[in-house]
Write a structure and sequence with these properties.
The complex is a heterodimer of chains A (310) and B (222). Helices cover 39% and strands 15% of the residues of chain A. Chain A is an alpha/beta fold and 310 residues long. Chain A has a single domain, classed as TIM Barrel (Alpha-Beta Barrel), CATH 3.20.20. Chain A has an eight-stranded parallel beta barrel, surrounded by six helices. In chain A, helix 6 crosses helix 7 and helix 8 packs antiparallel against helix 9. By secondary structure, chain B is an alpha/beta fold. Helices cover 26% and strands 23% of the residues of chain B. Chain B is built from seven helices and nine strands; from the N terminus they run βαβααβαβαβββαββα. Chain B has a four-stranded parallel sheet with strand order 3-2-4-5, with helices on both faces. In chain B, strands 1-6-7 form a three-stranded antiparallel sheet. Chain B has a two-stranded antiparallel sheet with strand order 8-9. Classes of the chains: A alpha/beta (310), B alpha/beta (222). Chains A and B meet through helix 5 and helix 6 of A and helix 7 of B.
Chain lengths: 310, 222
């Protein structure tokens, strides 16, 4: 095994296991227990836990501090970092800060636009984009240098991830864009929530045709639907989301009190099907404010117990 | 051109309500084309102010002048002989004109009568849209002639992001996704291979990040 970092997630993927990651959104306040409580619910069923970075541009506890809370619990965090709020000084500085706590995974993102959140009148930064952030982390890690060219004492050792959305437009550049992220240095990607399995399979096939599945670990993004209302919202209101009509109908046709169970069932069925796709290296389960359901999904999908890696 | 939009008249009234003589000063260039600060708009604004103050029982003398440009010394000099007659000037040129006036006529209050918005085009009469943010280091050669700095809401140099839907930006169905436009254009040019070339980290020091900018051309200086 040719490992580049001490990341547990990298070890599990390199060993050929299907990895399971999940995520916790930090609170809109400073109570650390919100993070530790969520992490407690899922820690035995996942290999690593993403901490989102002011997702949907709503101000929250910072991702780095929440990641440190996970480290203090002995868990494996994935630091999500968006380029929306930080210039290249702040990005590099936060990467070093994370490295100082031996945070070994980073997810490089552009971030949702400011207009969705609670600070719609603020400035956005976008000094770098997600592609360039991937390059930056790799440069800091592999060359041991800052963007400015100076040496870094004790460079960060981070397994570098990014997002991939097979469902956004234009579709024809979605695989080339993945290739571009790989060229930039990405080592794993977590996809947008997958509901349109046929389209995801088509995207995976195009990725395989270019051999991309052998150059990057692709973790399929899964978000269970809590009810038909959520499915409709995701379909109509969330940019870049592809929710087929049949799925909305299946939930809508289910009695209200059973819709949550049906949503979990749909998610498990999807994982079962996606497990069989060549090139799917694992699953990223985003149970939004529904973390308690993660163990059930992981177990029912046959992804439990998690592999033990030193 | 520089595109501007009219300020709410209440804002202008608030600035000049204590004055006795006011000059409304237009500009024959960009703001004339975008119908915010040319001779016609000078007339409309001056009339509206006169009417307002008349109704208030206030006597304020409001004059109208439109210069060829407010961003060149020679045209601004045309009002040197009359400037002292006014307690204030409302310039409805862009912010450049307002400032150049203020620099030249140091002791006269100059108020902006428009909001300067962006560098853009007339898509159709009454609809102006942005095309350039004057970043000072043009990358249009690599993006099919469509600018992601000014037209992508996240100014992604390696877009599109995951929010591009049906050719539209995630911020609004009214806004085109710049990267959809770039991809369409690269396809038309048979240059899709360029899409996979990574745009490097940009030098923003030629943008506003580097501080106030200057173009100093000795070759054309007298």
């Amino acid at each position: 095994m040719n490992l580049k970092t001490p990341s547990k997630l990298e070890k599990i993927l390199a060993a050929g296991h299907l990895a399971v990651t999940s995520e916790c959104g930090p609170p809109r306040g400073s109570d650390p227990e919100v993070i530790t409580r969520k992490a407690e619910m899922i820690k035995d069923h996942v290999d690593a836990i993403n901490i989102t970075d002011n997702q949907t541009s709503v101000t929250r506890m910072c991702s780095l501090a929440a990641c440190i809370r996970l480290k203090l619990m002995g868990l494996e965090p994935v630091l999500q970092m968006v380029t929306r709020d930080r210039n290249r000084i702040a990005l590099q500085s936060d990467i070093l800060g994370a490295a100082a706590f031996d945070i070994h995974n980073i997810l490089c993102l552009s971030g949702d636009h400011l207009s969705f959140g609670d600070c719609a009148q603020g400035q956005n930064v976008h000094d770098l984009d997600s592609m360039q952030l991937i390059q930056t982390v790799r440069h800091m890690r592999d060359e041991g240098k800052f963007l400015g060219g100076d040496d870094i004492k004790r460079p960060p050792q981070m397994f570098v991830g990014a997002a991939a959305n097979p469902f956004a437009d234009p579709f024809e550049i979605r695989v080339p864009r993945l290739a571009k992220k790989i060229a930039a240095g990405v080592e794993f990607v977590q996809t947008q929530c997958i509901y349109n399995l046929d389209k995801f399979e088509e995207w995976m096939k195009l990725a395989r045709d270019r051999g991309l599945h052998e150059k990057v670990y692709i973790l399929a993004g899964m978000t269970p639907m809590k009810n038909a209302g959520m499915a409709r919202y995701m379909k109509n209101r969330v940019p870049g989301m592809d929710v087929p009509d049949e799925l909305v109908k299946r939930l809508a046709d289910t009695p209200k009190e059973k819709q949550a169970d049906e949503g979990i069932k749909i998610c498990i069925e999807a994982i079962q099907r996606l497990k069989e796709i060549e090139g799917v290296a694992g699953f990223h389960i985003m149970a939004i404010e529904w973390e308690q359901k993660v163990p059930e999904i992981v177990e029912a999908a046959g992804l439990y117990p998690r592999p033990q890696i030193d | 051109m520089i595109v501007a939009d009219k300020k709410p008249i209440e804002e202008i009234i608030e600035q000049v309500k204590d004055k006795k003589t006011v000059l409304v000063l237009g500009c024959n260039e960009c703001v004339t084309v975008c119908e915010a600060g040319g001779k016609k708009e000078v007339g409309i604004l001056a009339s509206a102010l006169r009417m307002y103050f008349l109704n208030q029982g206030q006597e304020i003398k409001i004059d109208e002048v439109t210069l060829e440009r407010q961003c060149d010394h020679e045209y601004l000099e045309e009002i040197r002989d009359v400037i002292d007659r006014y307690d204030a000037v409302v310039s409805i040129a862009c912010g450049v004109g307002v400032q150049f006036m203020a620099e030249k006529y140091h002791s006269t209050p100059i108020f902006p009568g428009v909001n300067t918005c962006f560098l853009g085009v007339t898509e159709e009469r009454g609809l102006w849209t942005e095309r350039c943010q004057a970043c000072g280091s043009c990358i249009l050669a690599t993006t099919g002639g469509i600018c992601p700095v000014s037209r992508c809401a996240k100014r992604l140099l390696n877009g599109p992001c995951g929010g591009s839907t049906g050719g539209k930006c995630e911020i609004s169905k009214e806004v085109d996704c710049a990267w959809q436009l770039i991809v369409d254009r690269l396809k038309a040019l048979d240059k899709m291979d360029d899409f996979e070339t990574i745009a490097p980290v940009k030098d923003w020091s030629t943008d506003r990040a580097g501080g106030p900018r200057k173009v100093n051309r000795e070759d054309v200086q007298p």
